[in-house]
Recover the amino acids of this structure.
Protein backbone atom coordinates (compact mmCIF):
# COMPACT_ATOMS: atom_id res chain seq x y z
CA UNK A 1 0.00 0.00 0.00
CA UNK A 2 1.42 3.40 -0.97
CA UNK A 3 1.52 6.45 1.26
CA UNK A 4 -1.23 7.93 -0.88
CA UNK A 5 -3.73 5.21 0.02
CA UNK A 6 -3.41 5.19 3.80
CA UNK A 7 -6.95 4.60 5.05
CA UNK A 8 -8.75 7.49 6.67
CA UNK A 9 -11.45 7.56 9.33
CA UNK A 10 -14.80 5.86 8.98
CA UNK A 11 -17.62 8.10 7.89
CA UNK A 12 -19.56 7.64 11.16
CA UNK A 13 -16.61 8.74 13.33
CA UNK A 14 -15.80 12.28 14.37
CA UNK A 15 -14.01 14.18 11.60
CA UNK A 16 -10.28 13.72 11.85
CA UNK A 17 -9.74 17.46 11.97
CA UNK A 18 -11.55 17.75 15.31
CA UNK A 19 -9.23 15.56 17.42
CA UNK A 20 -5.47 15.74 18.08
CA UNK A 21 -5.10 12.10 17.08
CA UNK A 22 -7.02 12.65 13.89
CA UNK A 23 -4.92 15.67 12.97
CA UNK A 24 -1.77 13.63 13.47
CA UNK A 25 -3.14 10.94 11.17
CA UNK A 26 -3.90 13.56 8.52
CA UNK A 27 -0.40 15.03 8.86
CA UNK A 28 1.00 11.57 8.25
CA UNK A 29 -1.21 11.04 5.19
CA UNK A 30 -0.38 14.39 3.58
CA UNK A 31 3.30 14.55 4.58
CA UNK A 32 4.17 10.97 3.72
CA UNK A 33 2.13 11.06 0.53
CA UNK A 34 4.11 14.09 -0.59
CA UNK A 35 7.58 12.99 0.47
CA UNK A 36 7.40 9.25 -0.19
CA UNK A 37 4.99 8.98 -3.10
CA UNK A 38 4.13 12.07 -5.14
CA UNK A 39 7.55 13.71 -5.31
CA UNK A 40 9.50 10.47 -5.90
CA UNK A 41 7.08 9.45 -8.67
CA UNK A 42 7.76 12.61 -10.64
CA UNK A 43 11.44 12.96 -9.86
CA UNK A 44 12.07 9.35 -10.86
CA UNK A 45 10.17 9.57 -14.14
CA UNK A 46 9.93 13.10 -15.53
CA UNK A 47 13.40 14.65 -15.44
CA UNK A 48 14.87 15.04 -18.94
CA UNK A 49 18.64 14.99 -18.56
CA UNK A 50 19.21 15.03 -22.31
CA UNK A 51 17.24 18.09 -23.43
CA UNK A 52 16.49 19.77 -20.12
CA UNK A 53 13.25 20.44 -18.31
CA UNK A 54 10.66 17.82 -17.51
CA UNK A 55 8.46 15.41 -19.47
CA UNK A 56 5.09 15.19 -17.76
CA UNK A 57 3.07 13.13 -20.26
CA UNK A 58 3.34 9.86 -18.37
CA UNK A 59 1.44 6.59 -18.36
CA UNK A 60 0.20 4.97 -15.19
CA UNK A 61 3.58 3.42 -14.40
CA UNK A 62 5.55 6.58 -15.18
CA UNK A 63 6.67 5.66 -18.69
CA UNK A 64 6.72 8.57 -21.15
CA UNK A 65 3.83 8.48 -23.65
CA UNK A 66 4.49 11.85 -25.30
CA UNK A 67 7.76 13.81 -25.22
CA UNK A 68 6.18 17.25 -25.81
CA UNK A 69 6.41 19.64 -22.88
CA UNK A 70 3.82 21.99 -21.47
CA UNK A 71 5.58 25.19 -20.49
CA UNK A 72 3.18 26.09 -17.70
CA UNK A 73 3.76 22.70 -16.09
CA UNK A 74 7.51 23.41 -16.23
CA UNK A 75 6.80 26.51 -14.18
CA UNK A 76 4.53 24.69 -11.77
CA UNK A 77 7.04 21.95 -10.93
CA UNK A 78 9.87 24.46 -10.65
CA UNK A 79 7.75 26.43 -8.17
CA UNK A 80 7.06 23.25 -6.17
CA UNK A 81 10.68 22.15 -5.99
CA UNK A 82 11.94 25.58 -4.96
CA UNK A 83 9.15 25.94 -2.40
CA UNK A 84 9.94 22.54 -0.92
CA UNK A 85 13.58 23.61 -0.58
CA UNK A 86 12.62 26.89 1.12
CA UNK A 87 9.81 25.65 3.37
CA UNK A 88 10.39 21.95 4.09
CA UNK A 89 14.09 21.13 3.96
CA UNK A 90 17.08 22.51 2.02
CA UNK A 91 17.73 19.33 0.06
CA UNK A 92 20.31 20.03 -2.66
CA UNK A 93 18.44 17.72 -5.07
CA UNK A 94 15.33 19.90 -4.92
CA UNK A 95 17.23 23.12 -5.59
CA UNK A 96 19.22 21.52 -8.41
CA UNK A 97 16.03 20.29 -10.07
CA UNK A 98 14.40 23.70 -9.64
CA UNK A 99 17.40 25.24 -11.40
CA UNK A 100 17.14 22.53 -14.06
CA UNK A 101 13.51 23.52 -14.71
CA UNK A 102 14.23 27.24 -14.66
CA UNK A 103 17.07 26.82 -17.16
CA UNK A 104 14.67 25.18 -19.63
CA UNK A 105 12.05 27.90 -19.09
CA UNK A 106 14.57 30.65 -19.66
CA UNK A 107 16.06 28.98 -22.72
CA UNK A 108 12.90 27.90 -24.55
CA UNK A 109 9.89 29.46 -22.86
CA UNK A 110 9.83 32.98 -24.28
CA UNK A 111 8.81 34.43 -27.61
CA UNK A 112 10.36 37.60 -29.03
CA UNK A 113 7.56 39.76 -27.58
CA UNK A 114 8.38 38.65 -24.04
CA UNK A 115 5.35 36.42 -23.81
CA UNK A 116 5.60 32.66 -23.44
CA UNK A 117 4.87 29.55 -25.44
CA UNK A 118 2.35 27.11 -23.98
CA UNK A 119 3.56 23.90 -25.62
CA UNK A 120 7.00 22.99 -26.99
CA UNK A 121 8.73 19.91 -28.34
CA UNK A 122 11.09 17.89 -26.21
CA UNK A 123 14.04 19.96 -27.45
CA UNK A 124 12.23 23.25 -26.93
CA UNK A 125 10.88 24.16 -30.36
CA UNK A 126 7.56 26.05 -30.05
CA UNK A 127 4.39 24.15 -30.95
CA UNK A 128 1.69 26.44 -29.61
CA UNK A 129 1.28 29.87 -28.08
CA UNK A 130 -2.07 30.67 -26.48
CA UNK A 131 -3.80 34.00 -26.05
CA UNK A 132 -3.94 33.49 -22.27
CA UNK A 133 -1.22 34.64 -19.86
CA UNK A 134 -1.44 31.71 -17.45
CA UNK A 135 1.89 30.24 -18.56
CA UNK A 136 3.48 33.58 -17.71
CA UNK A 137 1.92 33.63 -14.23
CA UNK A 138 3.34 30.20 -13.43
CA UNK A 139 6.74 31.36 -14.65
CA UNK A 140 6.46 34.33 -12.28
CA UNK A 141 5.80 31.90 -9.43
CA UNK A 142 8.71 29.68 -10.49
CA UNK A 143 11.12 32.62 -10.68
CA UNK A 144 9.94 34.05 -7.36
CA UNK A 145 10.15 30.69 -5.58
CA UNK A 146 13.63 30.08 -6.97
CA UNK A 147 14.72 33.58 -5.97
CA UNK A 148 13.55 32.82 -2.44
CA UNK A 149 15.18 29.39 -2.26
CA UNK A 150 18.50 30.36 -3.83
CA UNK A 151 18.61 33.99 -2.66
CA UNK A 152 18.89 34.88 -6.34
CA UNK A 153 18.31 38.56 -7.00
CA UNK A 154 18.31 38.14 -10.77
CA UNK A 155 15.42 35.67 -10.58
CA UNK A 156 13.53 38.11 -8.35
CA UNK A 157 13.95 40.92 -10.87
CA UNK A 158 12.85 38.60 -13.69
CA UNK A 159 9.75 37.64 -11.69
CA UNK A 160 8.86 41.28 -11.08
CA UNK A 161 9.39 42.23 -14.72
CA UNK A 162 7.33 39.30 -16.00
CA UNK A 163 4.48 40.06 -13.59
CA UNK A 164 4.42 43.64 -14.85
CA UNK A 165 4.38 42.36 -18.44
CA UNK A 166 1.35 40.19 -17.57
CA UNK A 167 -0.41 43.23 -16.11
CA UNK A 168 0.40 45.29 -19.19
CA UNK A 169 -1.08 42.65 -21.50
CA UNK A 170 -4.20 42.32 -19.36
CA UNK A 171 -4.82 46.04 -19.06
CA UNK A 172 -3.92 47.27 -22.55
CA UNK A 173 -6.85 46.91 -24.96
CA UNK A 174 -6.00 44.96 -28.09
CA UNK A 175 -2.81 43.27 -26.87
CA UNK A 176 -4.55 39.96 -26.16
CA UNK A 177 -7.04 38.68 -28.74
CA UNK A 178 -10.51 38.18 -27.23
CA UNK A 179 -12.14 34.77 -27.05
CA UNK A 180 -15.49 36.16 -28.14
CA UNK A 181 -16.39 39.10 -30.36
CA UNK A 182 -16.19 42.04 -27.92
CA UNK A 183 -18.55 44.12 -30.00
CA UNK A 184 -21.30 41.51 -29.65
CA UNK A 185 -20.62 39.81 -26.31
CA UNK A 186 -17.74 41.15 -24.23
CA UNK A 187 -16.83 38.73 -21.45
CA UNK A 188 -14.26 38.16 -18.74
CA UNK A 189 -13.28 35.07 -16.76
CA UNK A 190 -12.87 34.31 -13.07
CA UNK A 191 -9.58 32.60 -13.90
CA UNK A 192 -7.74 35.89 -14.40
CA UNK A 193 -8.31 37.57 -11.01
CA UNK A 194 -8.00 34.19 -9.30
CA UNK A 195 -4.57 33.41 -10.75
CA UNK A 196 -3.31 36.95 -10.21
CA UNK A 197 -4.10 36.72 -6.48
CA UNK A 198 -1.91 33.67 -5.87
CA UNK A 199 0.79 34.86 -8.28
CA UNK A 200 1.08 38.18 -6.47
CA UNK A 201 1.07 36.37 -3.11
CA UNK A 202 4.00 34.25 -4.28
CA UNK A 203 5.89 37.22 -5.69
CA UNK A 204 5.32 39.17 -2.48
CA UNK A 205 7.43 36.62 -0.61
CA UNK A 206 10.55 38.04 -2.31
CA UNK A 207 9.45 41.47 -3.54
CA UNK A 208 8.46 44.62 -1.70
CA UNK A 209 7.01 46.16 -4.84
CA UNK A 210 3.59 47.63 -3.92
CA UNK A 211 2.19 46.21 -7.16
CA UNK A 212 1.71 42.87 -5.34
CA UNK A 213 -0.71 44.14 -2.69
CA UNK A 214 -2.31 46.48 -5.20
CA UNK A 215 -3.27 43.61 -7.49
CA UNK A 216 -4.29 41.29 -4.68
CA UNK A 217 -6.72 43.95 -3.45
CA UNK A 218 -7.90 44.74 -6.96
CA UNK A 219 -8.57 41.11 -7.87
CA UNK A 220 -10.34 40.20 -4.64
CA UNK A 221 -12.56 43.25 -5.07
CA UNK A 222 -13.31 42.24 -8.66
CA UNK A 223 -14.33 38.73 -7.64
CA UNK A 224 -16.60 40.08 -4.90
CA UNK A 225 -18.13 42.79 -7.08
CA UNK A 226 -18.51 41.05 -10.43
CA UNK A 227 -18.39 37.26 -10.06
CA UNK A 228 -20.17 36.61 -6.75
CA UNK A 229 -23.93 36.58 -7.28
CA UNK A 230 -25.96 36.54 -4.03
CA UNK A 231 -29.17 36.14 -6.02
CA UNK A 232 -27.89 32.73 -7.16
CA UNK A 233 -25.63 32.01 -4.16
CA UNK A 234 -22.94 31.15 -6.67
CA UNK A 235 -19.70 32.38 -8.17
CA UNK A 236 -19.96 32.60 -11.96
CA UNK A 237 -17.10 31.48 -14.15
CA UNK A 238 -17.75 34.08 -16.86
CA UNK A 239 -19.50 37.46 -16.73
CA UNK A 240 -19.76 40.65 -18.74
CA UNK A 241 -17.07 43.32 -18.33
CA UNK A 242 -18.95 44.94 -15.43
CA UNK A 243 -20.23 41.72 -13.92
CA UNK A 244 -23.31 41.40 -16.08
CA UNK A 245 -25.05 38.03 -15.99
CA UNK A 246 -25.02 36.46 -19.46
CA UNK A 247 -27.92 34.03 -19.86
CA UNK A 248 -26.10 31.68 -22.24
CA UNK A 249 -24.20 28.41 -21.80
CA UNK A 250 -20.95 30.20 -20.96
CA UNK A 251 -22.53 32.82 -18.73
CA UNK A 252 -24.49 30.29 -16.69
CA UNK A 253 -21.58 27.92 -16.19
CA UNK A 254 -20.16 27.22 -12.74
CA UNK A 255 -16.83 25.54 -12.10
CA UNK A 256 -17.04 24.67 -8.39
CA UNK A 257 -13.40 23.60 -8.10
CA UNK A 258 -12.18 26.85 -9.60
CA UNK A 259 -14.24 29.01 -7.28
CA UNK A 260 -13.25 26.89 -4.25
CA UNK A 261 -9.60 27.40 -5.21
CA UNK A 262 -10.20 31.17 -5.25
CA UNK A 263 -11.89 30.82 -1.85
CA UNK A 264 -8.80 29.48 -0.15
CA UNK A 265 -6.56 32.06 -1.83
CA UNK A 266 -8.79 34.73 -0.25
CA UNK A 267 -8.84 32.94 3.12
CA UNK A 268 -5.05 32.72 2.97
CA UNK A 269 -4.92 36.48 2.38
CA UNK A 270 -7.16 36.96 5.40
CA UNK A 271 -4.71 34.93 7.44
CA UNK A 272 -1.74 36.92 6.10
CA UNK A 273 -3.47 40.13 7.23
CA UNK A 274 -4.06 38.93 10.78
CA UNK A 275 -7.34 37.12 10.10
CA UNK A 276 -9.03 40.00 8.32
CA UNK A 277 -12.74 39.38 9.05
CA UNK A 278 -14.07 40.67 5.74
CA UNK A 279 -11.75 38.50 3.68
CA UNK A 280 -12.45 35.49 5.86
CA UNK A 281 -16.19 35.96 5.43
CA UNK A 282 -15.71 36.41 1.69
CA UNK A 283 -13.67 33.22 1.33
CA UNK A 284 -15.97 31.08 3.45
CA UNK A 285 -19.05 32.40 1.64
CA UNK A 286 -17.57 31.32 -1.69
CA UNK A 287 -16.78 27.93 -0.20
CA UNK A 288 -20.29 27.57 1.25
CA UNK A 289 -22.01 28.46 -2.01
CA UNK A 290 -19.84 26.35 -4.26
CA UNK A 291 -19.72 23.29 -2.03
CA UNK A 292 -23.49 23.12 -2.20
CA UNK A 293 -23.36 23.60 -5.97
CA UNK A 294 -20.52 21.16 -6.55
CA UNK A 295 -20.91 18.21 -4.20
CA UNK A 296 -22.50 15.15 -5.82
CA UNK A 297 -25.09 13.94 -3.32
CA UNK A 298 -25.64 10.68 -5.19
CA UNK A 299 -22.12 9.42 -5.88
CA UNK A 300 -19.93 11.77 -3.86
CA UNK A 301 -17.11 13.91 -5.14
CA UNK A 302 -17.04 17.31 -6.85
CA UNK A 303 -18.77 17.87 -10.18
CA UNK A 304 -16.67 19.59 -12.83
CA UNK A 305 -19.31 21.96 -14.27
CA UNK A 306 -22.79 22.99 -13.16
CA UNK A 307 -25.36 25.37 -14.62
CA UNK A 308 -26.37 28.18 -12.28
CA UNK A 309 -30.03 27.74 -13.28
CA UNK A 310 -29.94 23.95 -13.16
CA UNK A 311 -30.14 23.68 -16.94
CA UNK A 312 -28.14 21.15 -18.98
CA UNK A 313 -24.43 21.93 -19.43
CA UNK A 314 -23.00 21.67 -22.93
CA UNK A 315 -19.55 20.30 -21.98
CA UNK A 316 -19.67 16.51 -22.08
CA UNK A 317 -17.29 16.11 -19.12
CA UNK A 318 -19.53 18.21 -16.85
CA UNK A 319 -20.22 15.36 -14.40
CA UNK A 320 -16.76 13.79 -14.38
CA UNK A 321 -14.57 13.89 -11.30
CA UNK A 322 -11.17 15.48 -11.98
CA UNK A 323 -8.35 15.28 -9.46
CA UNK A 324 -7.67 18.99 -9.03
CA UNK A 325 -11.07 20.26 -7.78
CA UNK A 326 -10.83 17.66 -5.04
CA UNK A 327 -7.32 18.82 -4.14
CA UNK A 328 -8.57 22.41 -3.89
CA UNK A 329 -11.62 21.44 -1.84
CA UNK A 330 -9.45 19.48 0.61
CA UNK A 331 -7.30 22.58 1.16
CA UNK A 332 -10.21 25.01 1.35
CA UNK A 333 -12.28 23.03 3.86
CA UNK A 334 -9.23 22.40 6.06
CA UNK A 335 -8.22 26.07 6.04
CA UNK A 336 -11.81 27.17 6.71
CA UNK A 337 -11.92 24.94 9.77
CA UNK A 338 -8.53 26.18 10.92
CA UNK A 339 -9.65 29.82 10.69
CA UNK A 340 -13.25 29.51 11.96
CA UNK A 341 -13.45 26.38 14.12
CA UNK A 342 -16.80 25.61 12.47
CA UNK A 343 -17.24 21.83 12.50
CA UNK A 344 -19.24 22.04 9.29
CA UNK A 345 -15.93 22.53 7.49
CA UNK A 346 -14.37 19.60 9.34
CA UNK A 347 -17.24 17.40 8.12
CA UNK A 348 -16.90 18.66 4.55
CA UNK A 349 -13.17 18.10 4.69
CA UNK A 350 -13.72 14.54 5.83
CA UNK A 351 -16.20 13.94 3.02
CA UNK A 352 -13.95 15.18 0.23
CA UNK A 353 -10.83 13.66 1.78
CA UNK A 354 -12.45 10.24 2.12
CA UNK A 355 -13.93 10.25 -1.38
CA UNK A 356 -10.68 11.40 -2.94
CA UNK A 357 -8.47 8.92 -1.15
CA UNK A 358 -10.89 6.11 -1.94
CA UNK A 359 -10.86 6.79 -5.69
CA UNK A 360 -7.87 8.76 -7.03
CA UNK A 361 -4.69 7.16 -5.59
CA UNK A 362 -3.04 4.39 -7.58
CA UNK A 363 -2.12 1.67 -5.04
CA UNK A 364 0.19 -0.11 -7.50
CA UNK A 365 2.32 2.62 -9.06
CA UNK A 366 1.66 5.57 -6.77
CA UNK A 367 0.55 9.15 -7.46
CA UNK A 368 -3.07 9.87 -8.40
CA UNK A 369 -5.20 9.18 -11.42
CA UNK A 370 -6.62 12.39 -12.80
CA UNK A 371 -9.87 11.59 -14.55
CA UNK A 372 -12.78 9.55 -13.22
CA UNK A 373 -16.35 8.99 -14.32
CA UNK A 374 -19.11 10.38 -12.13
CA UNK A 375 -19.38 7.20 -10.06
CA UNK A 376 -15.63 7.06 -9.44
CA UNK A 377 -14.72 4.53 -12.12
CA UNK A 378 -11.42 5.18 -13.85
CA UNK A 379 -11.72 7.00 -17.17
CA UNK A 380 -8.06 7.04 -18.27
CA UNK A 381 -5.03 5.65 -16.42
CA UNK A 382 -2.42 8.26 -17.38
CA UNK A 383 -0.67 10.21 -14.64
CA UNK A 384 0.33 13.27 -16.63
CA UNK A 385 -0.36 15.28 -19.76
CA UNK A 386 -0.07 18.94 -20.81
CA UNK A 387 -2.45 19.90 -17.95
CA UNK A 388 -1.94 17.32 -15.21
CA UNK A 389 1.47 17.28 -13.59
CA UNK A 390 3.09 17.69 -10.16
CA UNK A 391 1.16 20.72 -8.94
CA UNK A 392 -2.37 20.50 -7.51
CA UNK A 393 -1.80 17.23 -5.65
CA UNK A 394 1.59 18.06 -4.10
CA UNK A 395 0.48 21.62 -3.32
CA UNK A 396 -2.52 20.19 -1.48
CA UNK A 397 -0.33 17.76 0.45
CA UNK A 398 2.19 20.47 1.33
CA UNK A 399 -0.31 23.11 2.38
CA UNK A 400 -2.50 20.74 4.38
CA UNK A 401 0.54 19.33 6.19
CA UNK A 402 1.70 22.86 7.02
CA UNK A 403 -1.74 24.09 8.09
CA UNK A 404 -2.24 21.08 10.36
CA UNK A 405 1.11 21.53 12.06
CA UNK A 406 0.28 25.20 12.61
CA UNK A 407 -3.10 24.18 14.04
CA UNK A 408 -1.33 21.81 16.40
CA UNK A 409 0.89 24.62 17.67
Amino acid sequence: MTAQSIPSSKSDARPLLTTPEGRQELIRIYRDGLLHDTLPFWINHCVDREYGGFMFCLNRDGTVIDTDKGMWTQGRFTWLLATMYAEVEPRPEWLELARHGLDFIRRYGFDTDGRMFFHVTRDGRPVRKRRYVFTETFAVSALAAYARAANDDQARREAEDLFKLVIRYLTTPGLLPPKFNPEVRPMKSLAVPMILIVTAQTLRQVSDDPICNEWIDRCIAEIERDFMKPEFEAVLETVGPNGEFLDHFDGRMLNPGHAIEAAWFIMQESRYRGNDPHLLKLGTTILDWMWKRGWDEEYGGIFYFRDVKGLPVQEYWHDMKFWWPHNEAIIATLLAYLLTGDEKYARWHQMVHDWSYAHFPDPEYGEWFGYLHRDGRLSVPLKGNLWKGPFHLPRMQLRCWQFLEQLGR
Notes: Residues 186-359 form a domain with the Glycosyltransferase fold (CATH 1.50.10.10). The chain has 13 helices and 14 strands.
